[in-house]
């Protein structure tokens, strides 16, 4: 029997079925940073997405596996959510650690070589350096784009200040020649940089985001102001991603400055692909 993987992220739920990936933005971690709990509304819309994905996968004859990241690592009511998924979707959820999340990002983005991989999520950001057999740096911090957007009230100046302060907590990151970005922030920026009307994973894979390009996108996003205007300029963005992309592009610009690099390569291969390798599925 083939396998299907569901990634329950803090900002999105994603399905890997065969070679196809499907994403639904649900903002599971909405309000989590302030309250410490997952809201009933965020839980329900996330469960609906999981249920739809699980049904699709089972109809295709696949065995379904699901893992969750930072939102469920920190939410005090995570058991309620896990029970809800079990009762409505007949699915067990594995909560992976920040170290495991970083490791599977590396496995997905660079399975056979060495790299520095940055995985930007909704509630956390992982940086890992090395190879599958020799990891010499890994750190997960609660700096995700849902959190950053909510903490700053979407103010560009506050986003920048929080990003600079947060990124500094990574300390000395041993940057490899190959630096790879995974997660919806990076893939969205790759699509935006190319002016795509509709998201195209083939065009985004291995796209190189330069500091110059990112600064131009940042200026356009800040000038646009509203989510509606951002989506008008960048029609490849769904509404929830458009809400988070200001924090995303500011964070990435500051990250490149901190790492002392001029560009970062976008990878469509990520946690979903890495989980398959990690579990030997």
Question: Could you walk me through the main structural features you see in this protein, from its secondary elements to its overall organization?
Answer:
With 281 residues, the protein is an alpha/beta fold. It has two domains: 3-95, Nucleotidyltransferase, domain 5 (2-Layer Sandwich), CATH 3.30.420.40; 112-269, Exopolyphosphatase. Domain 2 (Nucleotidyltransferase, domain 5), CATH 3.30.420. Helix content is 49%, strand content 21%. The chain contains 13 helices and eleven strands. It has helices spanning 32-35, 40-59, 70-74, 78-89, 98-109, 145-152, 156-167, 184-193, 201-204, 211-224, 227-233, 239-259, 271-279, and strands at 3-8, 12-17, 20-25, 63-68, 93-95, 115-120, 125-131, 134-141, 179-182, 208-210, 263-266. The strands form two sheets. It has a six-stranded mixed β-sheet, with helices on both faces. Strands 3-2-1-4-5 form a five-stranded mixed β-sheet, sandwiched between helices. Helix 2 (40-59) runs parallel beside helix 4, helix 6 (145-152) packs across helix 7 (156-167) and helix 7 (156-167) crosses helix 12 (239-259). The protein is globular and about 45 Å long.
């Amino acid at each position: 029997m083939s396998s299907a993987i569901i990634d329950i992220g803090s900002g999105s739920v994603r399905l890997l079925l065969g070679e196809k990936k499907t994403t639904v933005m649900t903002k599971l971690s909405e309000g989590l940073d302030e309250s410490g709990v997952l809201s009933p509304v965020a839980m329900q819309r996330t469960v609906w997405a999981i249920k739809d994905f699980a049904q699709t996968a089972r109809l295709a004859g696949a065995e379904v596996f699901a893992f969750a990241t930072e939102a469920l690592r920190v939410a005090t009511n995570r058991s309620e959510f896990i029970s809800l998924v079990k009762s409505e979707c007949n699915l067990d959820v594995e909560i992976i650690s920040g170290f495991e999340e970083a490791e599977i990002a590396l496995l997905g983005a660079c399975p056979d070589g060495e790299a520095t991989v940055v995985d930007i999520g909704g509630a956390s950001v992982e940086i890992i350096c090395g190879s599958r057999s020799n990891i010499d740096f890994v750190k997960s911090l609660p700096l995700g784009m849902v959190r950053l957007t909510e903490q700053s009230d979407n103010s560009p100046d506050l986003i920048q200040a929080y990003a600079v302060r947060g990124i500094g907590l990574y300390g000395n990151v041993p940057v490899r020649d190959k630096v790879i970005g995974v997660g919806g922030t990076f893939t969205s920026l790759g699509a935006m940089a190319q002016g795509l009307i509709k998201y195209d994973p083939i065009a985004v894979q291995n796209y190189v985001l330069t500091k110059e390009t990112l600064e131009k996108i940042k200026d356009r996003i800040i000038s646009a102001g509203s989510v509606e205007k951002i989506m008008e300029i960048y029609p490849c963005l769904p509404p929830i991603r458009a809400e988070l992309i200001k924090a995303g592009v500011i964070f990435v610009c500051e990250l490149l400055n901190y790492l002392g690099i001029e560009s970062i390569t976008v990878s469509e291969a990520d946690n979903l692909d890495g989980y398959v390798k990690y579990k030997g599925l």
